[in-house]
Amino acid sequence: MCGIVAYLGKKPAQPILIEGLKRLEYRGYDSAGVGLMNNGVIKITKSSGRISVLEELLEPINQAEVLGIGHTRWATHGEPNTINAHPHLDYTGKIAVVHNGIIENYSTLKTWLISEGCKFSSQTDTEVISNLIGYLYAGHNEKGTPTTGQNRFEWAVQRALNELVGTYGLAIVCADFPDMLIGAKKGSPLILGLGENEYIIASDASAIVEHTTQAIYMADNEMVICTSKGFHTKTIDNVEIRKDLKQIEFSLDAIELNGFQHYMLKEICEQPKALNMCLGGRLDHRDGRIVLGGLDKYWREITRAKRIIINACGTAWHAGLVGEFLLENLARINTETEYASEFRYRNPIIDDGTVVIAVSQSGETADTLAAVEQAKERGAIVLGIVNVVGSTIARTTDAGVYLRVGPEIGVASTKAFTAQVAVLAMLAIELGRRKHLGHDVAKFYIDELAKIPAKIEKVLTQSEQIKEIAAATCERENWLFLGRGFNYPVALEGALKLKEISYIHAEGLPAAEMKHGPIALINKGMPAVFIATKCSQYEKIIGNIEEVRARGGRTIVVATEGDENIGKYADFLITVPPAPEELQPLLTVVPLQILAYHAAVLRGHDVDKPRNLAKSVTVE
Ligand code: F6R
Asked: Which of 27, 203, 339, 365 to mutate to test the pocket of ligand 1 (most atoms within 8 A of CB)?
């Protein structure tokens, strides 16, 4: 949520900021702005709407403007208009701030700053940061002054940070120091890219990788001070720290559209390759075992677990639910999947035998992170299944498994879902093998898992046919998605995909639940998507399809290739190759992703920037 980027170097900052903001636009896109240092004056340009709107307002590139900060917003406090867009200048016009996060005590601080004579012009929480820094910088420092030799701007930032309650990823400049850029982090991600004679601070690596692959991942309560002479890092308590330099692991190519119209479509189509990367080196076919190096130190505890609690949100929660069924079925471990936002505020029972698993693409989701922290406080072993390397959840958990599918930029999660399910399947198979499954059964699932990428490739060839189905049905405003067993979470995921990008109301349900109420919704022509592959509940779901057809519903059926019987129940038929039922979600979700994609495009929506949404929900 919200993307920030800042540059200090020898090149003109403006094009670097704009390019960076475009790369970060998936984090939020309701307004944007940049602040450029020009001869001791901070020149702010902002607008509501997309980066493209901002670009039109910018003055021609000025070679002398080599320091700047930029922001693309997902509104929390204050509507998405130009005034509320970042950067926010303080009341003296000397301090400018871009911010990702939420300041929880902003109202108290604002009231106090107003009483001290500070002027506010926006409704944002961020303006208290610039005004507080400006207030302290101007000399109204009731609690001490900079220590000898300490730069006053740096001191004022550090003092202000100590007053803030909430979360922030910040980039800050001061008009009196045209050679200084400060970044700070608490609860929202912040990376410092180190180029040749240049620094780029950004919310994520996608805004940096074009310039350098050398980066420092900032941790909470840390700040970085960059000047043309060098940089130093310290805690907000003024303790100097040394940070390790890390390599950004993906290339620019991974974040380009590469000829696709949208990132979502690119990522759907990438799934065979992505899953091969995810499974690569982890399937030991000969010995019938799974190799997950990240868990090496914890296998004993996980194998002995009496209970596993999976914590996640949204699509990752749906993957977690498939994981629950896999872990129960293959490993015979009692497993529950929790919405992290609920778990964190309950009083969950976590005892010695409980292992907690957090599933998150971004590794930054605020609720999932809070659930991880809560579980750790209560003494649980906490594992992470995360995509973004070095993300907060990856660093906060005791151990984990990376998805290894490369950056996911489309706001609607696709390849992360299949990879999350694949990792949970590997975990379940390996735990099962260690407990009771036996070599042959484990090997069977491992061999079947290895066949999934090629099978997804086959599903993808039906894209045009699925587009026709979307064209015939996408004008309807209410849909049902129904599945049973392992395909029930896929029904939830199919409904979520359709909702978030096409704004069609869709409900995902276990098919048998329909009779307990939702069947009342069915009217003539209502699209009902059934996942009716060959599985242990096949006959049952055929019965559910009949119930819908009898009431005039129009059925879109995802079935197993070669099923001669199913055609008569389907107004529209999509097939997937056969697979063991435990692994079917990896296949059956793909046509539903494609269906949602085409429905949204046909309805004229910007698939990669759906209304009201942003990738990586770093606020509660
Ligand atoms: C839906 C979607 C969201 C995320 C959810 C969790 O397409 O992307 O529902 O799955 O916000 O995000 P992560 O996995 O980053 O924790």
From this structure: 365
Ligand 1 binding pocket, CB closer than 6 Å = 313-316, 360-362, 365, 368, 412-413, 496, 500, 616-617
CATH 3.30.420.40 for domain 461-607: no
Instruction: Return mean pLDDT, the chain.
Output: 95
pLDDT digits (tens, 9 = 90+) for 314-328: 999 999 999 999 999
pLDDT digits (tens, 9 = 90+) for 349-359: 998 899 999 99
Q: Whose CA is nearest to atom 11 of ligand 1?
A: 314
What per-residue confidence (pLDDT) applies to 78?
81
**At how many degrees (to 10) do helices 488-502 and 314-326 cross?**
170
Using only C-alpha atoms, the chain has a radius of gyration, in whole angstroms, of 26
Q: CA-based angle 105:108:114, to the nearest 5?
A: 130
Give the residue extent of every domain in the chain.
3-248, 256-457, 461-607
pLDDT band at 478 (very low <50, low <70, confident <90, very high): very high
Q: Ligand 1, residues 262, 267, 315, 368: which to mutate, most atoms within 8 A of Cβ? A: 315
d(C-alpha 402, C-alpha 32), whole Å? 32
pLDDT of residue 141: 60
How far apart (Å, rounded) are the C-alpha atoms in residues 20 and 206?
A: 8
The topology under which CATH files domain 3-248 is Glutamine Phosphoribosylpyrophosphate, subunit 1, domain 1 (3.60.20)
Residues with a catalytic annotation lie at 2, 615
CATH 3.40.50.10490 for domain 256-457, yes or no, is: yes
On the question of a common fold for 3-248 and 256-457, the answer reads no
